Amino acid sequence: MAGRKKPLVVISRKLPDAIETRMRELFDARLNVEDRPLTQPELVAAVKEADVLVPTVTDRIDASLIAQAGENLKLIANFGNGVDNIDVAAAAAKGIMVTNTPNVLTEDTADMTMALMLAVPRRLTEGAAMLTDDGKWAGWSPTWMLGRRIWGKRLGIVGMGRIGTAVARRAKAFGLSIHYHNRHRVAPATEDALEATYWDSLDQMLARMDIISVNCPSTPGTFHLLSARRLALLQPTAYVVNTARGDIIDEDALVTMLETGKLAGAGLDVFEHEPAVNPKLVRLAAKGKVVILPHMGSATIEGRIDMGEKVIINIRTFFDGHRPPDRVLPSRV
């Protein structure tokens, strides 16, 4: 881009140093060194003057904000795979392209899903807490801190995309039987490799599984996909793991089932009203019924750098006059 005016790129949160340095080299990059969420007035100011906005999942880029965008804003380069934080249709109607960062967080998120799948039935956080509470552990006992084995159990994956498939690969290695529900059946070769059973009925699958892993995207169609009615189909010995988006599960219904013993436990990395966490979930976590994490499923240094590099590639490709590789179309949201 030598000889041309560098585009003004406003970045809503602090990114890894290597990514911020590269952005400063390539663009007129405005960084958020305080790493605090931008206020609504600050977001309005950003879209009015920026050529490119780089938001994250915590920024709500809705139709009312996009309507206030200046003529210069031509690209919203989301730092994240999901774009449920952006009104893609409103952006397209105003001539603003949206990109995301797919295919770089699959393995990290699958790792965390597997970690929660182990942590909840095997009571890992409860056991760790015993050693940090002075004098509480009296030593090994054959009937103490008994959990449930996951080997031989049935795993039902809700959403067999890249992450769901990566979870299935890991779970198969741990001896789980793989089942899945998806909008479309995966390729026969993938099914064969994973020895996976496809269920066209989500209800029927839920009623028969020992562990449910939520790995589908958040869309209007998946809001409360695991509703109170569907959660009630689960066996009382079942566990639910969610590393996708909090609003896919009816959180109030999930809490009620955990409180009343109608569900064995849950591992949650996401919440319906983030960053707020339901106080009842916190109390259940203290009792060992739930393992809760602060949305850290993709939080690896490698993953964040890979995301930043994708953002840079999308911006550079756009201003070089080509179609960015990770363009998001309204019809695909």
Fold and architecture overview:
The structure is a single chain. This protein has 333 residues and is an alpha/beta fold. Helices cover 35% and strands 13% of the residues. The chain is built from 13 helices and 12 strands. It has helices spanning 17-26, 40-49, 63-66, 88-93, 106-119, 124-132, 162-173, 188-194, 202-206, 228-231, 251-259, 279-286, 301-319, and strands at 8-11, 28-30, 52-54, 75-77, 97-99, 154-158, 177-181, 197-198, 211-214, 239-242, 265-268, 290-292. The protein has a 7-stranded parallel β-sheet. A 5-stranded parallel β-sheet has the order 2-1-3-4-5, with helices on both faces. Helix 1 (17-26) packs parallel to helix 13 (301-319) and helix 5 (106-119) packs across helix 7 (162-173). The longest helix is centred in the C-terminal third of the chain and has 19 residues, at 301-319. The two termini are 32 Å apart. The mean pLDDT is 95.
Structure at a glance:
This protein is of the alpha/beta class and 333 residues long.
Helices and strands, with pairings:
Blueprint: E1 8-11, H1 17-26, E2 28-30, H2 40-49, E3 52-54, H3 63-66, E4 75-77, H4 88-93, E5 97-99, H5 106-119, H6 124-132, E6 154-158, H7 162-173, E7 177-181, H8 188-194, E8 197-198, H9 202-206, E9 211-214, H10 228-231, E10 239-242, H11 251-259, E11 265-268, H12 279-286, E12 290-292, H13 301-319
Parallel strand pairs: 1-2, 1-3, 3-4, 4-5, 6-7, 6-9, 7-8, 9-10, 10-11, 11-12
Helix pairs in contact: 1-13, 5-7
